[in-house]
Amino acid sequence: MSPLTELPDDIARDLREFTIEVPSWAYGNSGTRFKVFGTPGTPRDPFEKIADAAQTHAMTGSSPRVSLHHPWDRVEDTAALRSYAEDLGVQLGMINSNTFQDDEYKYGSLTHSDPAVRRRAIDHHLECLAVMREAGSHELKIWLADGTNYAGQDSIRARQDHLANSLAEIYAGLQEGERIVLEYKFFEPAFYHTDVPDWGTSLLHCLALGEQAMVVLDTGHHAPGTNIEFIVAQLLRQGRLGAFDFNSRNYADDDLIVGAADPFQLFRILFEIVQQDAHRPASGVNFMLDQCHNLESKIQGQIRSVLNVQETLAKALLVDREALADAQARYDVLEANAILMDAFWTDVRPALAAFREEQGLPADPFGAFRASGYEEKVAAERVGGNQMGWGA
Ligand code: LRH
Ligand code: MN
Ligand code: MN
C-alpha cells in the first residue's frame, strides 16, 4: 500500500483541533525500585518542567497543556507558574492529587478507617481544587493508592463506604464548569485489593456523585488481555469518559511510550473514540499522557508519544466507515476486519509531515528537536534534577 501524502480536509480539521495534555512528571527523572538513572539537564523545579513541556508543544503544535501533580509541583505562587507557562505558549492543565507518599496514608487515605486521616486526605483534595483554580484549570484527577495487601486486613465494604463519603465531600467543593475525574487501577502499590480497581467501581462512584464526576482510563491499569477498547466504548456510551492517561505496557504499569508496546491496541482504542466523535474538543475527553522515561531522553520521549497518538488518530480516522458498516451488515467478517487493517497499515507519516509544514511546524518534530541544541543547553545550565516529582 502506498503511503498517504495528503490528509483529507476533514481529517486535517480534526487533527488541528485535537490536543494531547502532557504530564509534568514525565520531564523529571524516574525509574524503578532498583534504580533511578539521572539524565543531564533534568528540571529542578516545576518551572523548568514547564519549560521542557513547552518544547514538546513548540515542536508538535499539539500539546498545549501540562498536567501538574500536587504537591510535587507545589510552588509558592501558582499564578506566577501559570503566567510563566502562558508566556511559553502552554497552559496549566489537570491537577493530580497525591495521597500516596505521606506516612499518615500507609493504610489508606480517603478510605482510611480513622476519620482524622480521611479528613486530612479530603482537605488535601480541597486544597487541590484551590490550586486548580489558580492554575486556570477546571479538572482534578484523583488516583488513590488505597488498598490492602492481605485478605482480612481490613473491611472491603467499610472502605467503599468511607470512599463514597469522602468523595461526596470533595465533590461538594466543585463549582460550575469544574469536574473531578476518578482513575482506577487494579493493583500496585496494594497487592491484595485496591479500593478503585476497575472502571465499574469508578463509574459507580461517579454516578453516585453526579454529572461533574467522570472516569479516567489509564491504559496501563488493567490485567493483561483486558479489552480496553470495549471499556472505552462503554464509558463513552454512558457519557462518563473524562480522560485518558495514555502509556503502554508489556507487563504491568510500565508507563512506556504510548504505542510502543502495542500500536494496534492504540489504534483499536482510537477507533472507538472516533466512532463516537469523542476526539472532537466538544466531547470533553481530556487526552493525556502518563509516562515515565527511565532510560530515554524525556522531551524526545514526550515528542515521540504525542506523534504516536497523532499518527494513530489519523489512521483511525481513515477507516472507511461506510464500507465497514456495509461489510458488517453482510456478516462479512473478514472484509470488515480487512477494512480496519487497511487503515491501520497505511503509512500516514508523509501526510502528517505535510500537514505540519502547512501550519509552520517542523515536518519532523523529533529530528528538529534533536537538532535544536536545547538539550545541550539545559544540560549545561541545570545541575541536580529530581526524581519524578519527589522533592521537586
Ligand atoms: C498511578 C498513576 C496515577 C498517578 C501517576 C503518577 O499508577 O498512573 O495517574 O498520578 O501514576
Ligand atoms: Mn495514571
Ligand atoms: Mn499508573
UniProtKB/TrEMBL annotation:
Its EC number is 5.3.1.14. The keyword Isomerase applies. SUPFAM superfamilies: Xylose isomerase-like. InterPro entries: L-rhamnose_isomerase, Rhamnose_iso-rel, Rhamnose_isomerase, Xyl_isomerase-like_sf. The keyword Nucleotide-binding does not apply. NCBIfam families: RhaI_grampos. It is an enzyme of class 5 (isomerase). It comes from the Bacteria. The gene is rhaI. This is L-rhamnose isomerase. Keywords: Cytoplasm, Isomerase, Manganese, Metal-binding, Rhamnose metabolism. GO terms for molecular function: L-rhamnose isomerase activity.
